[in-house]
Design goal:
The complex is a heterodimer of chains A (249) and B (442).
Chain A: E1 5-14, E2 17-27, E3 32-36, H1 43-50, E4 58-63, E5 66-67, H2 73-78, E6 81-83, H3 96-105, H4 122-134, H5 150-163, E7 168-172, H6 180-193, E8 198-202, H7 206-212, E9 215-220, E10 223-228, H8 230-235, H9 237-248
Parallel strand pairs in A: 3-8, 3-9, 6-7, 7-8
Antiparallel strand pairs in A: 1-2, 1-4, 4-5, 9-10
Helix pairs in contact in A: 3-4, 3-5, 4-5, 5-6
Chain B: H1 17-40, H2 44-70, H3 78-98, H4 107-126, H5 131-151, H6 153-156, E1 162-163, H7 180-202, H8 205-215, H9 217-221, H10 227-253, E2 255-256, H11 263-276, H12 283-301, H13 305-319, H14 323-329, H15 339-379, E3 386-389, E4 395-398, H16 402-441
Antiparallel strand pairs in B: 1-2, 3-4
Classes of the chains: A alpha/beta (249), B mainly alpha (442).
């Protein structure tokens, strides 16, 4: 079976400093895959490489068997991979509705169309509405995104990420900074939206990780030291020493 | 935080018949206004002024496709306006020479295509980057074209420019476009068409993505769009409409000069868009009208009108970054609830504005008096100490006497002091109106 995402010998150096130092990873289709690791391990950099925000120094990235190394973010997005950001990255002065609609347009085939009235595109309107209902922001649709609460903005970030219908979703710390109940809410949302899709998620909350993930990869100093099912990761002495032990201490 | 939305209509999903009729009726209303304006203001000067306004409206709106819609600050938008003006003048001369059966009303199409062509050519270079890099490249291109206009005499015609004659083209229905009123209707029709088209563009998928690029170009890449392409298409459209504006100007003046491609012209359109407000579609329209009026009227009254113009620009940026339209739209939230409450709240607010206006005018008058006297003493020693102020002979002021200087200082400082005292009155009236609106809404 072809991997949804396949990383081979992936490296990223800034000057002489290696941030990602030879990562190999196979993410299976339709699995929920968590990436954990201590601060500065390179988790966000790994996401930036996969999504095209950064160009790798060495190695390759394949998406469902297709080599996407060095492609621009929009080219990768058009191939069905979409990501969210650790720091909320939306269109703050556009309405909530506009935010989601902008993320819908390309996948619906409207591209750079300048001859159609966007308000009259029924398929776009239905899809936008559906996404907003899914992320529970339909009542807030008229507001500028910048005035939403933090948790609402995080939900919108997820909405913008899934709106284009990508079947490979990368979420970078979606519950960071949320209260307990907000995080629970977010996790159930993530569970719903990742149904039947491939999900790669960076998460610090171990409760969330062990609850949600089918498999977990542990990234330490730019290298993956283990990839396995949650129970086996918990039991892995190397992981305990390098990561879980370190945080417990 | 509540930033401006992009258009005058709320951007949510509404395709109700009521909304559609309302948006059409707006354009029909605009058409009727354009139609009857020359009847309301029948003088020749008024017709000339209105022609310049309509040209400036198209030019400023085309500029706002870049600045307001896509977040691209261009210092060289006159390149597309001016190049189209020259192409138009040459095209008209060619039509006249060859007796081609092309009537004048179709000529702006030629200008539009010329603007589009140069927009595509220069845009393919300059829109690779956004932000500061784009602004710098636009300035470089503007300098390049402005300096070639002094060298390439056969195309730009040197100091005299390229003149043409709009009455020598194919006449239809007895209109030879000699009288200014006929030219006005030609320009007004193109102005209305361009306004509708440019508004329509803001409501398309491309137009929405322009706003997204303005807000956050990086995020755009992660929803499947290439921000470079969005910028490039927006730039090409801006070139097209600037070209139509330049073409209308060439028809209006029967002349294209190097000033049309110059940095000054690029500056004026930036001012017009900014003073009107780039956050709303109507902003540049208001700005174009105001800037045209000021540059015509102020230059009649004062030699140093550009100084006042600059002060207005600075004042606008400091006190109302949203421009005129931003200032007006700030009142929109108060305009809710039952009509009686609206009118009561607005009445009080307007009254407080009037109260503030009186000392403000005194302050401005005092400052103007001082500035004009300084200008007279410093620049016009040859004319002697007597200054003629306002329409040559209305006022005569002896600059050697202390009285006008003291009066100027007292008016400026005293006016400011009193003006400052009216601010709490405005604030109270505003809060009252807002509170009433809230009560009305409950």
């Amino acid at each position: 079976m072809t991997s949804a995402v396949e990383l081979r010998g992936l490296e990223k150096r800034f000057g002489k400093t290696g941030i990602i130092r030879g990562v190999n990873l196979d993410v299976r289709p339709s699995e929920r895959h968590a990436v954990i690791g201590p601060n500065g391990a390179g988790k966000s950099t790994l996401f930036n490489l996969i999504s095209g925000r950064l160009v790798p120094s060495a190695g390759s990235i394949h998406l469902r068997g297709e080599n996407i190394t060095g492609l621009r973010p929009y080219e990768i997005n058009r191939r069905g991979l979409s990501r969210s950001f650790q720091v909320t990255n939306i269109f703050p002065r556009l309405s909530v509705w506009e935010n989601v609609r902008c993320a819908v347009l390309w996948s619906m085939g409207y591209k750079y169309s300048f001859w159609r009235n966007v308000d009259k595109l029924d398929d776009v309107r239905e899809r936008t509405q559906q996404i907003l209902e899914q992320i529970n922001l339909i009542d807030r649709r008229q507001l500028p995104a910048g005035v939403l609460t933090y948790a609402e903005q995080r939900a919108l970030e997820i909405g913008v990420t899934i709106a284009g219908g990508a079947d490979i979703i990368l979420l970078d710390e979606p519950t960071a900074g949320m209260s307990r109940s907000e995080a629970e809410h977010a996790v159930s949302l993530i569970r719903r939206i990742s149904e039947g899709r491939t999900l790669i998620i960076i998460e610090h909350d171990m409760g969330v990780v062990f609850d949600l993930a089918d498999r977990i990869s542990v990234l330490v100093y730019g290298q993956i030291i283990a990839t396995d099912q949650p129970a086996k990761i918990k039991a892995n002495p190397m992981v305990q020493q390098a990561y879980l032990g370190a945080t417990a201490a | 935080m509540s930033g401006p939305t992009t258009t005058m209509l709320p951007s949510a999903n509404r395709t109700s018949i009521g909304a559609r009729i309302r948006s059409y009726s707006l354009w029909i209303g605009a058409g009727i206004v354009l139609l009857i304006l020359p009847v309301v203001f029948p003088s020749g000067t008024a017709h000339t002024t209105m022609c310049l306004m309509a040209i400036m409206i198209v030019f400023a709106l085309s500029y706002n496709l870049l600045l307001g819609q896509t977040g691209m600050l261009s210092f060289g938008h006159a390149v597309y306006y001016g190049m189209a003006a020259f192409v138009t003048a040459h095209a008209m001369n060619w039509v006249v020479r060859n007796g081609a059966p092309i009537p004048l009303p179709l000529i702006p199409l030629v200008g539009g295509l010329a603007g589009l062509f140069f927009g595509i050519v220069f845009g393919s270079v300059s829109t690779k980057r956004g932000g500061t890099a784009f602004a710098m490249i636009s300035l470089g291109l503007a300098e390049l074209v402005a300096s070639s206009s002094l060298v390439l005499r056969s195309f730009f015609g040197g100091d005299e420019g390229i003149s043409t004659n709009r009455t020598k083209l194919l006449t239809m229905f007895g209109w030879d476009f000699g009288p200014q009123i006929q030219v006005y209707y030609l320009i007004a029709a193109w102005c209305l068409l361009c306004m509708i088209l440019m508004y329509a563009i803001t409501r398309t998928p491309l137009g929405r993505m322009c706003n997204a690029v303005r807000e956050n170009p990086e995020r755009v890449e992660f929803v499947g769009y290439n921000p470079q392409t969005v910028r490039f298409i927006a730039f090409s459209f801006a070139g097209l409409f600037a070209g139509i504006a330049g073409s209308l100007a060439a028809i209006n003046f029967e002349l294209a000069t190097s000033g049309d491609v110059g940095i000054g012209r690029s500056g004026v359109v930036l001012l017009a868009a900014y003073i009107g407000g780039v956050g709303f579609f109507v902003g540049p329209i208001l700005g174009a009208i105001l800037v045209t009026l000021l540059s015509l009227r102020l230059s009649d009254v004062s030699e140093i009108w550009q100084l006042y113009f600059g002060l207005l620009f600075i004042g606008m940026i400091i006190f109302s970054p949203g421009g005129l339209s931003g200032l007006l739209m700030r009142h929109a939230p108060l305009w809710r609830g039952p009509l009686g409450i609206r009118l009561a709240g607005f009445g009080k607010l307007l009254l407080s504005y009037l109260i503030a206006l009186i000392p403000a005018l005194v302050m401005i008058a005092g400052a103007v008096l001082l500035v004009e006297m300084v200008h007279h003493v410093a620049q016009k020693t040859a004319e002697g100490p007597t200054m003629h102020f306002l329409r040559q002979n209305a006022w005569t002021i002896d600059t050697r006497s202390y009285t006008p200087w003291i009066a100027g200082i007292v008016m400026t400082i005293g006016g400011f002091y009193l003006f400052r005292m009216t601010w709490p009155i405005i604030e109270r009236a505003w809060n009252d109106a807002a509170a009433q609106t809230r009560r009305g809404a409950v």
